Amino acid sequence: MTTTIAALATPPVSGALGIIRISGPDAVALAQTVFFPSGGAPLDRRGSHRAVLGRISIDGRVIDEGFCVLMRAPKSYTGEDVAELQMHGSLLVLNAVLSALWKNGAAPARAGEFTRRAFLNGKLNLSQAEAVRDLIAAQTLDAAYNAAGQISGVIEKRYARLYDTLSGLLAHFQACADYPEEDLPPSAAEETLETLAGIIAELQALLQSYEKGRAQTEGIRCAIIGKPNVGKSTLLNALTGMDRAIVSPEPGTTRDTIEEAVLLGGVLLRLTDCAGLRETDDPIENKGVERARLAAERAALLFVVLDASKPLDGEDRAALDYASERPAVVVLNKSDLPRAVETEMLEAAFLHVCPVSALTGAGIDHIESTVRRIFDSRMIYDGSVLAGARQAEAVRATLDASREAEDALRRGVTPDAVMAELERAMNALDELTGKRMSEDMLDKIFADFCVGK
Ligand code: GDP
């Protein structure tokens, strides 16, 4: 028998409002044990999807006032009867009401259990359920827009189209296997190969979107390089708005690499301040140099910082050389001082040159818009970006099977071999959307959700 679950749907802190969510066959009856409408008909005779004003009582004593919204099955998030209590946000009171509900027969909801029920009741498929999790966890607006697009089913439609195409091919081969005496016209084989090539290209594009999307949702690795004392730490502080790196007038004080996540122009960057990339006799500093090299090698974008108030020297040129073949922004720092650097040469060699003063903050907005320009043009976050390692794994399996099918077809083996691969590809897609899914897998997926979702 299905239990009725209850949990706090808002964060477990005190705030203006708090929401308790109840879902299951006894949701309305349980809500009625603590919620009493301020007039008119009792709660169970009120319409669905309407806010009803009333008092919240525990053991006959009024403890709060608020609204109760009933969402009758199947037109609710979970597909079950749902009651939501919207109350004042006292954590103490919310917990007391929850305890009363549990005492009256509700079960505490596990992490993600509401969404899990929504999935089991066919309100959401698995990739949409995962998108709900991603929307809540999004660290950038782009990631949130993408997750919202996925909830509304943008990527789902692509999966469904791929599935239909694969099942069309399978039906075709089944017909061939049933009537082996009828030779396939050569044009039919060509057509099938073309269709498969289309499927493979689409799956590859999805995987590529995953790699790029992941970089942007988890943060793009960036390194701040430049010789000591040009203002790298000051720049990092200006970008993060915190005194994270030690700023000192002595060269070579940034002895270690420091990584800092910063949302710049809507793009999440993982910035590493690299110690001056130069050899020294100091063993501690040399270790820092090594780490800086590594961070710079792994970076997808380099910020080359120069002290624009002094003529460029060999060390500056070495940093510029290092960055010349890679995505880079040249930061002409200390622009509050008289300029001693020729900018024309730099602008000819680099696409992005930003004069700033890390000290005063002037020009930081220019860096922001530059970062936005560099990364914005690459993707459209409308829900078509594949998100989550699990989905990527399933797409990879679909791609692998589709390639095997293509290979079998080219080699001219029996339709059976092609059909087996097509079926494998379709099974992988079924796992992706959750049509085939074990309890264990579901446990694993929903464990990442928060309670109350
Ligand atoms: P790093 O070794 O490259 O990390 O350089 P720091 O960030 O430690 O800065 C070295 C010195 O330059 C410090 O005294 C900073 O206050 C100074 N500095 C950094 N940025 C600016 C700037 O934009 N203008 C001026 N006038 N001084 C700066």
Number of helices in the DSSP assignment: 15
Question: What is the CA-based Rg, rounded?
Answer: 29 Å
Please tell me the overall pLDDT: 88
Read across the widest sheet, the strand sequence of neighbours is 3-4-5-6-2-1-7
Q: What global shape is seen?
A: flat
Largest sheet: 7 strands, mixed
Per CATH, what is the topology of the largest domain? Rossmann fold
SSE arrangement, N to C: EEHEEEEHEHHHHHEHEEHEHEHEHHHH
The total strand number stands at 13
| Number of structural units classed as domains | 3
Structure description:
The chain has 453 residues and is of the alpha/beta class. The chain folds into 3 domains: 5-123, Gyrase A, domain 2; 129-214 and 388-434, Four Helix Bundle (Hemerythrin (Met), subunit A) (Up-down Bundle); 219-374, 3-Layer(aba) Sandwich (Rossmann fold). It contains 15 helices and 13 strands. It has helices spanning 27-34, 91-103, 113-120, 126-137, 141-151, 154-178, 186-218, 232-240, 283-298, 314-323, 343-349, 364-376, 389-410, 415-433, 439-447; strands at 5-8, 15-23, 35-37, 51-58, 61-71, 82-89, 107-108, 220-225, 258-264, 267-273, 301-307, 328-333, 353-355. Strands 3-4-5-6-2-1-7 form a 7-stranded mixed β-sheet. It has a 6-stranded mixed β-sheet with strand order 9-10-8-11-12-13, sandwiched between helices. β1 (5-8) and β2 form a beta hairpin. α13 (389-410) runs antiparallel to α14 (415-433). The longest helix has 33 residues, at 186-218. It is flat, with a radius of gyration of 29 Å. The chain starts with a strand and ends in a 6-residue tail after the last helix. The mean pLDDT is 88. Bound molecules: guanosine-5'-diphosphate.
